What we know:
Helix content: under 10%
Strand content: 35-45%
Bound molecules: magnesium ion
Low-confidence stretches: none
Amino acid sequence: MSHPFPGLEHLIPADATLQKLAGGATWGEGPVCLEDGAVLWSDIPGNRVLRWHPQDSTPDAPFSVAVQPSHFHNGHTRDDAGRLYACSHGERAVLRSDDAGHSWHSIATHHGDKRLNSPNDIIVARDGGVWFSDPPYGLIQPHEGYGGEQEQEGCWVYRLDPDTGAVEAKVCDLLRPNGLAFSPDETTLYVTDTSKSHDPAGHHHIHAYPVSGNDVGEGRVFAVVDPGLPDGIRIDAHGHLWSSSGGGVQVFAPDGTRLGVVDVPEVIGNLTFSHLEPYLYIAASSSLYRLPVSVRGARF
Length: 300
Ligand code: MG
């Protein structure tokens, strides 16, 4: 029998099937895995954060509502200590939770003396630095935020220093920076540009930047994603890049070669590897999906 995911034989078991865990969201984004096996993810237009847990989920109630109103949380991640991080369109802030998502507090609201646009996606490096993208989607899309004026000169990727709280711009050459991920050795930062979302001629690219210390060098186009957009991305422990798109999860080798695609019947917002079990969780439009995999994530 042929493998169900051609080109991905070394990354996905031959008996793997895509499992739909929950439907009922409006636009799913920002999945993150918790210590107890739960997955939190954002329903951005629904203005809520949802929680799925294998022991609590039933056919009638596949998920519970963890935060409502969420003030339009978007991306989530966690750090090595299990603290959670969120990007808030509505609060124009980066948030942290030290109690598994029950309460959230702001850790960044400004760059310089100007408010952030609407933080979108977020990762935490091994040194504790918090990297996040800041496109204007929460300002320009009425169903994904409270509106407001853009104060920043551009849409940039920032690093929040864990010791000083300083917010420093690191990537300033993209139109709509969105998803983020580091290579396993953290010497390459991948950032997606989703400017095609509001401009048919816009970008739907993944860019790669060399990183030395916390300095970011000149970027290059790593891959162009079709159909749709590369919203959220993640890297596995061997350096493969797993990208959301309008047509499934697209998997790229470290050299940018597209290896294969996992078909998903809805447009994907974001994805994350579990640190507990060999699963990839996928937030796709109305639903949360899970795919058994043969690799672990490089990070969360
Ligand atoms: Mg995003």
